[in-house]
Sequence to fold (180 residues):
Amino acid sequence: MGKKKTSPGPRQKLSEVTMAVSRKEIMSTTTPKGSWNAEILAKWGVKWPAPSGWKRKLIENWDAQNPDSPETKRNRQRAAAKAALEREINVISLEETQAEFMKSDVWYQLRYKVFTVYGRKCMCCGKRYNLDVDHIKPKSRYPELIADFNNLQILCRDCNYGKGNWDETDWRPKPDDDPW
Ligand SMILES: [Zn+2]
Fold:
């Protein structure tokens, strides 16, 4: 009764892509739109829909057969450059490093010292609960001041939420302030 579904069947494994085709040939044999259709791929022994990595595999096969060609040398350089870029991307980002620090013993000790020195009170509005130890100069823009006691003040959560990333207001009590 119903329409017959055309199933693509199991996808070809990359290890079954055994022909050798140069990068030059792959890049110059495309449809007018610059892509590769089933007909082109069939010529190279790649079944539609192509397994991911088919291009790299064909080129690797070609490189293995032509180890001394200038194109193989260029391909090797390209692969090395790509690997170097990936290594760079994998370097832990500043944000992740800071998030780690904010969970460390060093931070909790520093935070405790701030309360010990100043007392338990929002330096902006005077509230005495939901208190945060805040970086006066934001840690996103001054990562070098993340563990500097002189860059820390006490704000309640509401004041801290209200504070923008560009705000650097120092709310610490000044010597000639009203009795704190
Ligand atoms: Zn407050």
Q: What stands out?
A: The helical segments are 23-28, 38-43, 54-65, 70-89, 94-101, 105-118, 157-162. The longest strand covers residues 131-135.
